[in-house]
Structure formats: C-alpha cells, structure tokens
Amino acid sequence: MKLTLKIWRQANSEAKGNMITYPIDGVDGDMSFLEMMDIVNEGLINKGEEPVEFDHDCREGICGACSMMINGQPHGPQRLTTTCQLHMRKFNDGDTITIEPWRAAGFPVIKDLIVDRSSFDRIQQAGAYVSVNTSGNTQDANSIPVEKAKADEAFHSATCIGCGACVAACKNASAMLFTSAKVSQYALLPQGEVEATDRVMNMVRQMDMEGFGNCTNTGACMIECPKGIKLENIARMNREYLKAETLG
Ligand code: SF4
Ligand code: FES
Prior knowledge:
CATH architecture of the largest domain: Orthogonal Bundle
Distance between the termini: 60 Å
Number of strands: 7
Organism: Nonlabens xylanidelens
Shape: elongated
Number of helices: 8
CATH superfamily of the largest domain: Alpha-helical ferredoxin
Cofactor: [3Fe-4S] cluster; [2Fe-2S] cluster; [4Fe-4S] cluster
Oligomer: single chain
CATH class of the largest domain: Mainly Alpha
Strand content: 5-15%
Domain 4Fe-4S ferredoxin-type: 151-181
CATH topology of the largest domain: Fumarate Reductase Iron-sulfur Protein, Chain B, domain 2
Number of domains: 2
Bound molecules: iron/sulfur cluster, FE2/S2 (inorganic) cluster
Helix content: 25-40%
GO molecular function, one term: metal ion binding
Protein name: Succinate dehydrogenase / fumarate reductase iron-sulfur subunit
Structural class: alpha+beta
Radius of gyration: 20 Å
Largest sheet: 5 strands, mixed
C-alpha cells in the first residue's frame, strides 16, 4: 500500500505545532499501525531527521499508552481496539491518514503525538484505592461474599486502561467515563464501601481541578473507548456523589 500521512509535529509544549505530510510506500495490511509508524521513523532517522515521538509500551492493548487521534477518531476506525492493535488492513491503498495527539486542556502536548496524562494519575491518587489495615487482623478478602453480577460489573469497570480516548472523543473534554470507571470498580464491591464517601468526593474534585469538562450525555466516550466502558458508570458515579454530598 502507498499512503499519505499527515502527522502533527510539535517540538515541545511551548512550540506552535503543524501538520507535516509524509508519503509512505510498501505498507503491508498485516502490519500494526505502530509498526507502520516505526517504518516512518526509520526513514526519518536514515535521512537524519527527527523521528515522530509517540507513546507506546505493551503493544497488546493493556497499558493505554498508544494514544493518538487517527482520521479524527481516538485509536482510529476500529471499535474496541487500541492503536497498537489496529492493523493497516483497515486502510486502503492511496488513503490519506491524519495523525494527531489528544487535544484537551487536561492533556497538554509534550512533543509531537505525546501528551502529558499525569492528570489521570492524580485523579487515581485522589481515591482509587482501598486502604489496607496491616495490623495482622486483616480479614481475608476471599471471605467476603460478593454477588457474581456485581463482581462481573466491577471487573468490567476495572478494565479501563486509562488511555484517555474518552476525553479526546468528548466535545467537553470530559474525564467522566475514566473517573467513573475507577469509582465504580470500588463502589460495586463491599471492600470499597468504607472509603466510598471520600473517594468519590476527592476524585471528582481532582477531575475538576485538572480542567476536564462536564458530561452532557453525548456518549462519544463510550463509542470510542477501546475497552467498551459503559455510560452506566457515569450514572453510578453521579449517584455515589449525590449520596456522599447528602449523607456526608
Ligand atoms: S474509559 Fe475507556 S477511553 Fe476512557 S481511559 Fe478508560 S479505557 Fe480509555
Ligand atoms: S501500547 Fe499498550 S495499549 Fe497500546
């Protein structure tokens, strides 16, 4: 396949970025999107030019690092798929592909396609944990009965990989899907009840402080989420928040 790539290049967080066009030849349909990007970079390095910076780690859909906007869609055209698991067979010979970083106040661009997603770390640090009593009297977690349906839902919420596609897809750059998945994985389990009030209040406060917008129930986040995190999580987080505010 011959393709024309239009890639966002930005030297650093202060610099003014722009789209640069790169023609590429010999792309195989079995290559992953990131393997195609590797070839672009090999070409640039061989010419003595700066390679395109992009985030990646696991390349198997579990770390959430490979965040990029492909033809205006977070993680590209295939549903429930991260960029690293997207194959070039989804594109056609002669296609032009635009590749940009996430765009949100809470995710400032560091360089080219890499954004700073430490805002997500700070939201997690605000409450996405269960404090453990290490006195030696801790109850064995397996001795606490958990309803199967709730365990399954909690597990599903916990599959959020923190990639930020939900923010990138949202017209308000809202982080509600991410935050609510993290709130839900604890809210659904008895182990999470002890700190439930502080958790939701602190995480929502941090989310607002990081500059993310509010949810207007458009649902683009759920459509673009590579892990299929559902809007029900947002409804649950809102209920948890209301409960926390009312009951203190
Ligand atoms: S909710 Fe989905 S899109 Fe948002 S961070 Fe988690 S996995 Fe990524
Ligand atoms: S590189 Fe880890 S999810 Fe894509």
